[in-house]
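Encode chain A's predicted structure.
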Amino acid sequence: MVFDSEEAARSYYEEYATRIGFVTRVLSSRKSERDGTIISRGLGCRVGPGNKKFERVSFQKRDRRREGCMAMILVKRENPGKWVVKKFVKDHNHSLVVSVPKKRPAPDEKDKKIQELTAELRVKKRLSAAYRDQLLSLMKDVEDHNDHLSMKVQVVINNLKELEAKRQQIP
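Encoded structure for chain A:
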């Protein structure tokens, strides 16, 4: 199976996990020594070390082999933009819990704050548009008034010129 990105592979496996009835975790990732980008990612079932069912009694040095559930997927970047499944373990060594996925998670405080700020921004944009319209209208009125005054000033100037001409004609 081939994916366009590591995130696409991860999303696919998490969706698969939700349908089957388990929760995933990152088991491993490997970065390129050349540019530091991720070149492989291992995802697996969360049941295992760290889960209370599988906690150790003693604090001895941990064995590198995976304990608990061995279900996993390993994807590697082959060509730029192509991620290929290199390993897939389907079997779980525990019972699975199928849950009905929620359509949409309840919004947390950050989501609520984002919604509030978005609503406030919409109101401010409407106000800004109204103020802009009023300002443009006022500017048009000022321009019209300026044109009207300019015409009146021109009439006064013309009248003054006529009076000056008449006055010079009188001896």
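Strands lie at 2-3, 24-31, 38-45, 72-77, 83-89.
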